[in-house]
């Protein structure tokens, strides 16, 4: 039978991408129920060509639901995912609430799909969008060469901070249009009226901060890159140093990755591995001006890898550049792919 699906957080930036994907991918679902906060209840959104009324988040909203994709803040997910799971719903949660819970699998279908089957809490966690941008290609390289260390600079889009991030950036662009700000020390701070969710003016700038302050001066985002990469790859000793920087791009994260392996690598072999990696597009011909940029990757399903080169001072290391749409494969698409894995169980088990 076709399982029913609830989309919890249907009215957010990721929710919009979720509904779009559910409308164009092979339809494996019965009822699709749209759930959001009580203030959004009653809104009508279109999914699979059908205008559907949004219902408020409540225990009853999960009656008759088999699978639920959550895209809500951590505190909402922490409260409501267990309530849904207690009603027998399989929850695919895009928040950070359960990702490091040892009884919750952290799943990237191209990398560790079988992990989704072992879900003692009835919850499957969707990884952080920054991690999802790089992990597919790295997993393929790890299979061949044995990954031992990552040094990552992540250039993260404004929509990683939600619709308010996008609205803030666009408002700042309007404020500086036609001016010469960005040339004098601190002049942006004098012109930009609202930093929104960012720690400093974002337009014409780079802000080396995302998330909350943790021990040692690391950001929560940087710790997610380290801890989630280790869990997904099953490498508890993987050395990871990440620096997460917000840049004035609307959507699509970019990462400069230095990856160290156990064995010597070759550029040609690495390119071949990446070309054949599921969910990855190799776009790497600098002589022809071909390398990924956020604007080439936005709105597409795969992650895009380029600038592949062997480190000059370490024959066991590769440097590469990756772009991925942080709302799509970085959030909605990966969650839908996990939900489709669960849906396949229903069709197998009847
Ligand atoms: C960000 N990765 O970019 C975080 C959450 N989406 O803000």
Automatic annotation (TrEMBL):
<keyword id="KW-0521">NADP</keyword>
<dbReference type="GO" id="GO:0009088">
    <property type="term" value="P:threonine biosynthetic process"/>
</dbReference>
<dbReference type="GO" id="GO:0051287">
    <property type="term" value="F:NAD binding"/>
</dbReference>
<feature type="transmembrane region" description="Helical">
    <location>
        <begin position="2"/>
        <end position="24"/>
    </location>
</feature>
<dbReference type="Pfam" id="PF01118">
    <property type="entry name" value="Semialdhyde_dh"/>
</dbReference>
<feature type="active site" description="Acyl-thioester intermediate">
    <location>
        <position position="129"/>
    </location>
</feature>
<comment type="similarity">
    <text>Belongs to the aspartate-semialdehyde dehydrogenase family.</text>
</comment>
<feature type="active site" description="Proton acceptor">
    <location>
        <position position="253"/>
    </location>
</feature>
<dbReference type="GO" id="GO:0004073">
    <property type="term" value="F:aspartate-semialdehyde dehydrogenase activity"/>
</dbReference>
<keyword id="KW-0457">Lysine biosynthesis</keyword>
<dbReference type="InterPro" id="IPR012280">
    <property type="entry name" value="Semialdhyde_DH_dimer_dom"/>
</dbReference>
<dbReference type="InterPro" id="IPR036291">
    <property type="entry name" value="NAD(P)-bd_dom_sf"/>
</dbReference>
<keyword id="KW-0560">Oxidoreductase</keyword>
<dbReference type="GO" id="GO:0019877">
    <property type="term" value="P:diaminopimelate biosynthetic process"/>
</dbReference>
<keyword id="KW-0472">Membrane</keyword>
<keyword id="KW-0028">Amino-acid biosynthesis</keyword>
<keyword id="KW-0486">Methionine biosynthesis</keyword>
<dbReference type="InterPro" id="IPR005986">
    <property type="entry name" value="Asp_semialdehyde_DH_beta"/>
</dbReference>
<dbReference type="InterPro" id="IPR000534">
    <property type="entry name" value="Semialdehyde_DH_NAD-bd"/>
</dbReference>
<dbReference type="GO" id="GO:0050661">
    <property type="term" value="F:NADP binding"/>
</dbReference>
<keyword id="KW-0812">Transmembrane</keyword>
<keyword id="KW-0220">Diaminopimelate biosynthesis</keyword>
<comment type="subunit">
    <text>Homodimer.</text>
</comment>
<dbReference type="Pfam" id="PF02774">
    <property type="entry name" value="Semialdhyde_dhC"/>
</dbReference>
<dbReference type="GO" id="GO:0046983">
    <property type="term" value="F:protein dimerization activity"/>
</dbReference>
<feature type="domain" description="Semialdehyde dehydrogenase NAD-binding">
    <location>
        <begin position="4"/>
        <end position="119"/>
    </location>
</feature>
<dbReference type="GO" id="GO:0009097">
    <property type="term" value="P:isoleucine biosynthetic process"/>
</dbReference>
<keyword id="KW-1133">Transmembrane helix</keyword>
<protein>
    <recommendedName>
        <fullName>Aspartate-semialdehyde dehydrogenase</fullName>
        <ecNumber>1.2.1.11</ecNumber>
    </recommendedName>
</protein>
<dbReference type="GO" id="GO:0009086">
    <property type="term" value="P:methionine biosynthetic process"/>
</dbReference>
<keyword id="KW-0791">Threonine biosynthesis</keyword>
<dbReference type="GO" id="GO:0009089">
    <property type="term" value="P:lysine biosynthetic process via diaminopimelate"/>
</dbReference>
């Amino acid at each position: 039978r076709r399982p029913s699906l609830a989309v919890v957080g249907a009215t957010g930036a990721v929710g919009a991408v979720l509904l779009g994907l559910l409308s164009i991918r092979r339809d494996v679902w019965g009822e699709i129920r749209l759930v959001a906060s009580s203030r959004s209840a009653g809104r009508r959104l279109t999914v699979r060509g059908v205008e559907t009324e949004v219902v408020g988040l409540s225990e009853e909203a999960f009656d008759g639901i088999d699978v639920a994709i959550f895209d809500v803040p951590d505190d909402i997910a922490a409260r409501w995912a267990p309530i849904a799971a207690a009603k027998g719903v399989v929850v695919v949660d895009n928040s950070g609430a359960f990702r490091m819970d040892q009884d919750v699998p952290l799943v990237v279908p191209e990398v560790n799909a079988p992990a989704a089957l072992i879900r003692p809490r009835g919850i499957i966690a969707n990884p952080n969008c920054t991690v999802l941008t790089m992990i597919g290609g790295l997993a393929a390289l790890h299979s061949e060469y044995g990954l031992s260390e990552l040094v990552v600079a992540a250039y993260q889009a404004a929509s990683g901070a939600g619709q308010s991030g996008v609205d803030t950036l666009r408002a700042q662009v309007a404020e500086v249009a036609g001016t010469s700000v960005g040339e004098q020390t601190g002049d942006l701070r004098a012109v930009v009226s609202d930093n929104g969710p960012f720690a400093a003016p974002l337009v014409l700038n780079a802000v080396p901060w995302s998330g909350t302050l943790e021990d040692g001066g690391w950001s929560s985002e940087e710790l997610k890159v380290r801890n989630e990469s280790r869990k997904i790859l099953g490498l508890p000793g993987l050395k990871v140093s990440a620096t997460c920087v917000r840049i004035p791009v609307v959507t699509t994260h970019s990462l400069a990755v230095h990856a160290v392996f156990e064995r010597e690598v070759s550029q040609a072999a690495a390119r071949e591995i990446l070309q054949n990696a599921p969910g990855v597009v190799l776009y790497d011909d600098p002589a022809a001006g071909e390398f990924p940029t956020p604007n080439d990757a936005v709105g597409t399903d795969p992650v895009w890898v380029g600038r592949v080169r062997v480190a000059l001072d370490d024959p066991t290391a590769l440097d590469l550049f990756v772009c991925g749409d942080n709302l799509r494969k970085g959030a909605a698409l990966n969650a839908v792919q996990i939900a489709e894995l669960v849906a396949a169980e229903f069709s197998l088990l009847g």
